[in-house]
């Protein structure tokens, strides 16, 4: 780990330490690291509009207990990382989504997922990490696929969680789940956002495993930490302007484990299966009852799966 970086204890998690890392490309990323310095690192890459605290503490601690040093960070445009101010023309999201589902190219976003994968590679460089295990969730899984293909010498093994390669004609999100994701909150104040988050997680989360109180507490904490809806839209546009990763998947050489929930209605399991089929030698694991989230109930099994994959 780069000794020039100054870490302080995370205000959220006693066993994590935080710092800001200047990537040298105009972006600063906010990072948390936990575990022993001598343990092999795991880089966790989060999904669309999700701050790094969406990697549950219990999940991070489970990986640390398996003998890893865990690194989680806010992607650009979210949390405490740099925000991208974009003055370009307003884009028609629905039209772009239509083209995207057919595998047609979109343009005009301020950045795409390749730029976000470059951020991850620069972060590893700045942290002084030569090689790492990687787990990417949802959009973070798309970034992880690019990272493994483009920066192959940086990634030991790849773990992908409820993600997609966005190849044409994959099963679409269920309408209720998609509209919950795209719907605007009733109000932009703290209570409006907390209510909106709870409603969203009830719809996309694992049925029967969404803890209402915990979800509201997390949403409140994240709202107070950072609220920047423009960043969420820009990350969504980044996905739409990156398009299919199918050809890129064929270049991935690292041992890959793709994990998906049987109850995922936002990215149905067909997405994970498509990724596993496209990456040479990838393994696919379906978790019965899990949705598009990481509830405590599934964490021991998930951390065991990934730790076993990385060690074998």
UniProtKB/TrEMBL annotation:
UniProt keyword list: Hydrolase
Entry superkingdom: Bacteria
Domain AB hydrolase-1 intervals: 40-294
Gene3D superfamilies reported for this sequence: alpha/beta hydrolase
Molecular function GO labels: hydrolase activity
Transmembrane segments: none
Signal peptide annotation: none
Protein name: Alpha/beta hydrolase
Lineage: Bacteria, Pseudomonadati, Pseudomonadota, Gammaproteobacteria, Moraxellales
């Amino acid at each position: 780990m780069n000794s020039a970086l100054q870490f302080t204890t995370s205000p959220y998690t006693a066993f994590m330490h935080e710092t800001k890392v200047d990537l040298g490309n105009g972006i600063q990323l906010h990072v948390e690291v936990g575990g022993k310095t001598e343990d092999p690192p795991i880089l966790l890459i989060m999904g669309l509009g999700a701050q790094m605290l969406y990697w549950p503490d219990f999940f991070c601690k489970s990986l640390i207990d398996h003998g890893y040093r865990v690194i989680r960070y806010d992607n650009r445009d979210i949390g405490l990382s740099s925000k991208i101010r974009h003055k370009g023309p307003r884009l028609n999201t629905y039209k772009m989504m239509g083209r995207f589902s057919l595998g047609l190219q979109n343009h005009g976003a301020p950045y795409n997922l390749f730029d976000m994968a470059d951020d991850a590679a620069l972060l590893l460089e700045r942290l002084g990490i030569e090689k790492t295990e990687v787990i990417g969730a949802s959009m973070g899984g798309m970034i992880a696929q690019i990272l493994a293909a483009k920066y192959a010498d940086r990634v030991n093994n790849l773990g992908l969680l409820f993600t997609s390669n966005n190849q044409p004609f994959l099963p679409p999100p269920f309408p209720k789940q998609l509209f919950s994701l795209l719907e605007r909150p009733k109000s932009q104040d703290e209570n409006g956002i907390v209510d909106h988050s709870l409603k969203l997680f009830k719809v996309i989360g694992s049925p029967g495993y969404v803890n209402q109180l915990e979800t509201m507490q997390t949403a409140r904490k994240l709202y107070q930490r950072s609220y920047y809806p423009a960043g969420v839209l820009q990350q969504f546009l980044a996905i739409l302007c990156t398009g299919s990763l199918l050809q890129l998947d064929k270049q991935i050489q690292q041992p890959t484990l793709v994990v998906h929930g049987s109850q995922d209605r936002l990215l149905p399991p067909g997405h994970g299966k498509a990724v596993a089929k496209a990456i040479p030698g990838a393994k696919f694991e379906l978790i019965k009852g899990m949705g598009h989230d990481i509830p405590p109930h599934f964490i021991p099994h998930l951390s065991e799966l990934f730790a076993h994959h990385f060690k074998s």
